[in-house]
Design brief:
This protein has a single domain, classed as Immunoglobulin-like (Sandwich), CATH 2.60.40.420. The protein is α+β, with helices and mostly antiparallel strands. Strands 1, 2, 3, 5, 7, 8 and 10 form a seven-stranded mixed beta sheet that branches. It is 19% helix and 44% strand.
């Protein structure tokens, strides 16, 4: 009987390990932060990422302008796990944009679902260096 219990214990441990390995939200890949600078525009204008991978995208505002960052197609084609603002988590059903009225950071935790090229931009400033693309492979 001890042999069977030992084998059962090993099998349960293997199943538990497999379940943890399948949880895509256990560890996010950190993208290079996107800095919003009134003088320079976006610090990054192109990201290349993989569909099905969990990411954390930090967006940092210098606070010199009011910025409304839109990425509607990317957000529509992604599972948004959470948005973190000043250590407060929001668990949205969907996301269209994030807006900065002041200096600060917003983290978006997401998993892109479909390959494609998805633009992101600042409303009203996209012709002044505030336009980029998220390429999902």
């Amino acid at each position: 009987m001890t042999g069977r219990l030992g084998l059962l214990g090993i099998a349960l441990a293997m199943l538990a390990g497999a379940a943890q390995a399948e949880d895509a939200t256990r560890r996010a890949e950190r993208l290079e932060p996107l800095a919003l600078s009134a003088a320079e525009g976006f610090s990054v204008t192109r990201y290349e990422i993989e569909a099905g991978t969990y990411y954390r995208w930090r967006i940092e505002s210098d606070g010199l302008e009011e910025y409304k960052l839109l990425a509607p197609e990317l957000f529509r084609e992604s599972w948004i796990d959470q948005v973190v603002i000043e250590d407060k988590e929001v668990k949205p059903y969907g996301l269209h944009a994030v807006e900065f009225d002041d200096e600060g950071e917003i983290d978006i935790w997401f998993i892109p679902q479909r390959p494609g090229e998805y633009p992101f931009y600042i409303e009203g400033l996209d012709t002044q260096g505030f336009r980029g693309v998220m390429v999902v492979k």
